[in-house]
Design goal:
The chain has 335 residues and is of the alpha/beta class. The protein has helices at residues 11-22, 55-60, 72-84, 126-142, 160-170, 204-217, 251-259, 312-328; strands at 2-6, 29-33, 42-45, 48-51, 65-68, 88-91, 103-104, 120-122, 144-153, 223-230, 237-245, 264-266, 287-295, 301-308.
Length: 335
């Protein structure tokens, strides 16, 4: 299996290499790819040192699969070029997600949408992935009428520059004396603004969660409203999720469904102050759910809290899982 990781020097690209190694994804030839300014840098994969190469060099090598985390522009320009040489592309940017000709996949939810003709496959937004893993089985059994979600998103979702800003602030740096990724200090702060604002007052990040939910669940009738905020956290993203179901439910049944859902772990014991927190999701692939309770202000209402490592399940792991599905379906060679 000839594997390329495009955007290999970034925060997600680095984690992708780790996840490929951890999951024993089959690799016979490895191609670490980044922008021209990073060509020649060294990266280590499976104990071996590699030189970072250009996208053009990787395309010439005709890899079987390319895992992208290089941003929307490079994905727009490069993904078709990789696909043209017979390479399957799994793209972590937002560029292809809402393209009606491209599949948007969470392997635990909708792997069956993949076909032999899919050469560019989109990886969903990290916040969408962690919200839908617990919601998809509830939608299948009860039907979801409406979702209201508020996110508390780790600085790691903004990349290395954002992490460096927070670390500089925690080291005592004063505003203006260090490179800043955000418009404001992030340490000891919450910024209710992720991505650009749209004309309707929502941000692009919020719109992603709303639109991607419809596409992945295959149901445009679900009402979805999102508010996304950046918090000074490293471990992962947290979400407060409120849903209105079409049918009546019992809380014990919801717990049982989640306990039997692959990729979901229930931590919900208020008597012992046990609930999901980003501190404990770091480095793990599951979505952790808790604070489960009825919303008695609406018929068939449910509240819960969920947490996940956004760089792993929200990006790297989900992308590698998509590639694993391609192998299972016979769309990638079984070496």
């Amino acid at each position: 299996m000839k594997v390329a990781v495009v955007g290999v020097t970034g925060l997600v690209g680095t984690r992708m290499m780790e996840v490929i190694e951890e999951r024993n994804f089959p690799v016979s030839e490895f191609f670490p790819v980044a922008s021209e300014r990073s060509v020649g840098r060294k990266v280590t994969f499976k104990g071996k040192e590699y030189d970072v190469i250009s996208a053009e060099a990787a395309i010439a090598a005709r890899p079987d699969v390319a895992i992208f985390s290089a941003g929307g522009g490079p994905s727009r320009d490069l993904a078709p070029k990789f696909a043209e040489v017979g390479c399957r592309v799994v793209d972590n940017s937002s560029y292809w997600r809402m393209d009606p000709t491209k599949k948007l996949v969470i392997p635990e939810i909708n792997p069956d949408v993949l076909s032999p003709d899919d050469y560019i496959i989109a990886n969903p937004n990290c916040s969408t992935i962690q919200m839908l893993l617990p919601l998809a089985p509830l939608h299948r059994k009860y039907g979801i009428k409406r979702i209201v979600v508020s996110t508390y998103q780790s600085v790691t979702g903004s990349g290395n520059k954002a992490v460096a800003q927070m670390e500089a602030e925690r080291a005592g740096g004063k505003w203006g004396e260090y490179p800043a990724f955000y418009n404001y200090p992030i340490d000891q702060n919450v910024i209710p603004h992720i991505d650009v604002f749209l004309e309707d007052g929502y941000t692009k990040e919020e719109r992603k969660m709303m639109d991607e939910t419809h596409k992945i669940l295959g149901d445009d009738k679900i009402g979805v409203s999102a508010t996304t905020a950046r918090v000074p956290v490293i471990g992962g993203h947290s979400e407060s999720v409120n849903i209105e179901l079409e049918k009546e439910f019992e809380l014990d049944d919801i717990r049982r469904i989640w306990e039997h859902t692959t990729g979901v772990t229930v931590i919900d014991n208020p008597a012992k102050n046990e609930y999901p927190m980003p501190l404990y999701s770091l480095g793990k692939d599951d979505v952790f759910v808790g604070r489960l309770r009825r919303d008695n202000s609406v018929k068939n209402g449910l509240n819960f809290w969920c947490v996940s490592d956004n760089i792993r399940k929200g990006a790297a792991t989900n992308a590698i899982q998509i590639a694993e599905v391609l192998i299972e379906k016979g769309f990638l060679p079984r070496y």
